[in-house]
Amino acid sequence: MTNSSTEKKGKGTIFVKAEICKGCSFCIDFCPTKAIGFSNEFNQKGYHYPVLVYEEKCTGCDLCGLYCPDFAIFGVRYKDLEERQLKQA
Amino acid sequence: MTQDNNNYADVKNPLMDVLRHDRMPHIWCPGCGIGTSLNCFARALEGCGLNLDKVAIVSGIGCTGRTAGYINLDSFHTTHGRAIPFATGLKLSNPELNVVVYSGDGDLFAIGGNHFFHAARRNMDLLVICVNNYTYGMTGGQVAPTTPLGPTQTTMPYGNFENSFNLPFIADACGATYVARWTAYHVKQLAKSMQEGLLKKGFRFIEVMCPCPTLYSRRNKLGDGVDQMLYYKEKSTIKNEANTKEVELSYQGDIIVGKFVDRERPTWLDSMNNHLSKALGDSFSPYGTNGGNHGQD
After folding, report:
1. B194: distance to nearest CA of chain A, Å?
2. What is residue B10's predicted lDDT score, i.e. its pLDDT?
């Protein structure tokens, strides 16, 4: 997952904290647009964590963030993201 | 953040303020639904608009009992089954607190069953969230009072033959003012229901059905957490205001979810104030109506 460029493909994106993910796959199975998939890499505990496979499909609805039992993932709409950053700054 | 959105490296999880992130990762197994229910509760706390300094969370023993340690509120992890008595004392000594009891089915209905019935009967002003995973998860998968007929458990190697409790019916019959049941699959509804519960008065009860992949599902060959969630998705029907007599659970059978009861009854403190004002007249000054510092000044 290298999305280091500034180009935005979908309406939103996800943020994953891989080190606390336990690979239960709730976010992957219940993503409404099936945009998330397992990573090829392992985290420190030996689980495959979720990554955004189809960037153009993500709407940033944050349902993955609501299902996650480990608080390891959340989704954001790009239009909310700037607002949130301003608020934090 | 592994996602290489370098421009947004400082974006924080919206639940950061409500949770104790230094305690993560938590102890629950991969695929366990307790984390999902806690996630919904954290969102309900964020959305309810209450002063979080005035919300306290009390939990009992068990897997679900660990929630008190992960939520960044005033919290207490009580002895086994005594979460409701502790919460009752907390509420009565400081009536301006909004007290939440967050515990499992074994804690609230087996060892703490009696306390549950009487707190509901008195209409004590508490929100009780019961995470029902059909088994005693922490101690190794023994039969719980909520285990339906059929599944194999460590103490029932040939399948369970004991009848189980119908939790919403108990709460309704004992006089709770708000009774709802959701599963870990119905996250949006659950978060909304918890928010409603936080803002209501009286004894409020929410049952959350959760997968237990390590003990319940694995012993009965039901797959992992996702398979249980898919079962909830397939077999559950939303039926608000359903008769609580008819919402009993069965082994891998149909589940009726929804908000079953929503009514108004005077709480224990209101009843006491009303009654004693009538009985004693002007010599009695009501307790708990002036911000909770009655008798201390």
Report:
1. 14
2. 63
Which homologous superfamily is B13-265 in? Thiamin diphosphate (ThDP)-binding fold, Pyr/PP domains (3.40.50.970)
Of 3.20.20.10, 3.30.470.30, 3.30.70.20, 3.40.50.720, the CATH number of A12-88 is: 3.30.70.20
Tokens representing residue A77 in the block: 């709409």
Going by C-alpha positions, the residue among B120, B167, B129 that lies closest to residue B263 is B120
CB contact under 8 A, A14 and B39: no
Is A20 in Cβ contact with B14 (below 8 Å)?
Answer: no
Which of A3, A20, A45 is opposite residue B3, by nearest beta carbon? A3
Interface test with B, best of A36, A71, A77 (most B CBs within 10 A): A71
Q: Are B11 and A81 in contact (CB under 8 A)?
A: yes
Beta strands in B148-241 (DSSP E): 178-183, 204-209, 236-238
Domain ranges of chain A: 12-88
Over residues B158-184, the pLDDT tens digits come to 999 999 999 999 999 999 999 999 999
